[in-house]
Amino acid sequence: AKHAGGHQFSYVTPNLQQAAQARQGIADDLRAAIALRQFEIVYQPIVSLQTGTVHKAEALLRWRHPTRGLLGPAEFIPFAESNGLIVEIGDWVFREVAQQVQRWQRSIDPSFQISVNKSPVQFRRDADLYLSWLDYLNELGLPANSIVIEITEGVLFEGATQVIERLRQFRAMGLQVALDDFGTGYSSLSHLKRFDIDYVKIDQSFVATLENDVGDLALCEAIIVMAHKLGLKVVAEGVETKVQRALLVDAGCDYAQGYVFARPMPAQEFEAMAAAGAPR
Ligand code: C2E
Ligand code: CA
Ligand code: CA
Ligand code: CA
């Protein structure tokens, strides 16, 4: 009828085109972002549930985009993974974090640790990157166990032998390893035994329903008991309420992070917080 032929998609095409252009725009901008120093790292305290002290933090990446504002990892990491820039970005994050943890070992606590996230793609691509990290740690004179590498369970399934070998290399370097988002996807308690790790991080989806779902509470308790038997420490993620915190303390959980304590914050703010005493 009226909108025949080329016109019949006139509603859809501009939107799809805009979306595609936006994606291409982000992918292009990403290439320059490191050189332009547009990435920032925010730090979220990891609180000891037994003592209330903060001697650990997780490093979380942000991109201060010149026109789009402050972007979270979900808005750009997928692009960085598909074009391979994740390797360069991950390398930058590692070096920044190594310098930061060294400063905080001097000013906050000598055994301060920072966790960094490593995407599955990065895990597969940068076969020898850990060697340059080792050089960098030596250059700084920083013990490797100052840094914890966080990997998700999914990684363990994609090419397991390769991944086990990489984990072995990390541990041989002295880096520590945390299993992130535990309880989601293909998770199984047997992984805790099979893989060479130091920390288990209980996914925030379980923590969110702790108060209302006795099944989730039982699951958290089982993870904690099993992890402790295997000599691992447990971190609960996404703790937002005092009730959740109390249940985790009772369950014997070692560490927690979440909005009930503090949101991720710039390094300077973190230092001020540490100087004023840990969030309780
Ligand atoms: P993740 O490793 O599971 O990180 C935890 C996420 O939960 C963070 O989101 C954090 O800001 C958020 N969070 C912390 N406390 C709470 C809480 O109490 N409630 C709720 N609802 N959320 C909370 P963020 O910073 O947006 O990071 C999202 C994901 O992006 C991370 O999930 C991680 O997988 C990835 N990511 C972050 N930084 C990096 C990086 O440097 N490299 C790579 N490859 N991935 C990164
Ligand atoms: Ca993480
Ligand atoms: Ca997580
Ligand atoms: Ca996650």
TrEMBL record:
Domain of life: Bacteria
Full protein segment contained here: 474 to 753 of 756
Domain EAL positions: 23-278
UniProt name for this protein: EAL domain-containing protein
